[in-house]
Specification:
Blueprint (H helix, E strand, L loop, with lengths): L2 E6 L2 E7 L9 E5 L2 E8 L17 E8 L10 E5 L2 E7 L24
Antiparallel strand pairs: 1-2, 2-7, 3-4, 4-5, 6-7
Length: 114
């Protein structure tokens, strides 16, 4: 199961190539920080036909991804289009960069004593 993964803005995006896979056979689950992807490609030959050449792999395929703690696994969005399964996993709010305001004493001066 070929895969690409990248970060785009506030999302972690993963693409899985699944040509010839019926979307009904795709299963996704997350346990702790492990994402499991399962899919099945069935033999497309009608019953009673004689197979002459069989070079495309068939059967069940599984892929696991270890997701970091910085991702919000409760809000994974999955879509299947043009034989590609796409997952969008938002970066958790607490993991996003944020600006920290610095406040000072009188007129912004600080005195350091030692």
């Amino acid at each position: 199961m070929a895969m690409e993964a990248y970060r785009s803005g506030d999302d972690f995006v993963v693409h899985f190539d699944l040509p010839g896979v019926d979307p009904e056979t795709i299963e996704l689950d997350v346990e702790r920080n492990v994402l499991n992807v399962r899919a099945e490609r069935r033999v497309p030959v009608p019953e009673g036909a004689e197979m002459i050449v069989a070079e495309r792999p068939t059967g069940s395929f599984t892929r696991q991804l270890l997701l970091g703690d910085t991702l919000d696994t409760e809000r994974i969005d999955a879509s299947y289009d043009a034989r590609v399964l796409t997952l969008r996993i938002p970066v958790a709010e607490q993991a996003k960069p944020r600006r920290i305001q610095i406040t000072g004493g009188d007129s912004g001066r600080r005195q350091i004593s030692g």
